[in-house]
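Entry type: protein chain
Record version: 2
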Amino acid sequence: MVKTKSESVPDPTRGKSLMYWEPTYVWTTKFLNEHPELKVGAEIGCAAGQHIKAIMEETKVEKMYGVDPYITESWDMHGFFDINETYGGFDGLYEEVCDMLSPYGDRVEMVRKKSTDAAPDFEDGCLDFVFIDAFHDYENCNNDIAFWHHRVRKGGYVMGHDWDHGSHPGVQQAVVEHYGDKVTGISSPVHVWYIQV
């Protein structure tokens, strides 16, 4: 029996994610295409992997690291995905994400660790950009910025999701505390912030 495309390349979002976050993906891929010097990046908090997939398909980024532990205590997406019912647990979701991204070969490397545990594996200045989209509370976003800012080289970009988002005020609070008025924030429906370091 020949596999269909949907069987051979899974969609862990079950077609949902683009409805919610397509404006973010469109903005990010456009930004990366306008900055071709940004060749190596990391996404902190990957969920169903659709953002990395969009970057792989729409840009010439050479390498993306996807950092996400895929565990209950590091997940605030329960309103979007029923992990146990849909995937049989986090191992199932992680496997589907890896399968979906496998056609991109060495261009994608998944790192199944908490953000703060994974950061020491990366040397300071080794990344051209980082996109922070993990836990959306103040404390965790603050930690993610603190741990990942220095992994980005001078002239690169620290970026993230959920700027000016009514459900996640802690994100903007943490970003502004770190970067003040130097940060650029883009409101709904994009909800992206960024700063050149």
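Comment: The CA atoms of residues 23 and 189 lie 6 Å apart.
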